């Protein structure tokens, strides 16, 4: 059975930029050098930061982490959401159309958590761990159905 893929913006495109819940609806403020790297991607229409623009720890060693310091593709599915989604250097977590990393709300949406789901009053680190370590609810449901057969 072929299932059509859905891009990142399908999941998060209708979210309005709001800081009604600053912990859930905002990104961490990046360091100046990180802002410069995000600008580099947008100013050149790139999704992968060239090695020449990466910090020494990712530039001077052989690596296979192309998506580190990457920008999400609006029309492609997201890479796996991990606990590092709030940091540009931990994966392809720069928002596809805005100069920032994705918010916990956007990460939860990509994981298919419904908007009514409450994560409690956790701080940002615990919120990122909860969302990043979660099995997406729809995947858990499908796995559960399969195991019941």
Automatic annotation (TrEMBL):
SUPFAM superfamilies linked to this entry: S-adenosyl-L-methionine-dependent methyltransferases (SSF53335)
Any one Gene Ontology molecular-function term assigned to this protein's record: DNA binding
GO cellular component: nucleus
One Pfam match: DNA_methylase
Top-level EC class as recorded in UniProt: transferase
Annotated EC: 2.1.1.37
Keyword Chaperone: no
An annotated GO BP: methylation
Keyword check for Oxidoreductase: no
Signal peptide from the UniProt entry: none
Keywords assigned: Methyltransferase, S-adenosyl-L-methionine, Transferase
InterPro entries, alphabetized: C5-Methyltransferase, C5_MeTfrase, C5_meth_CS, SAM-dependent_MTases_sf
The protein, known as: DNA (cytosine-5-)-methyltransferase
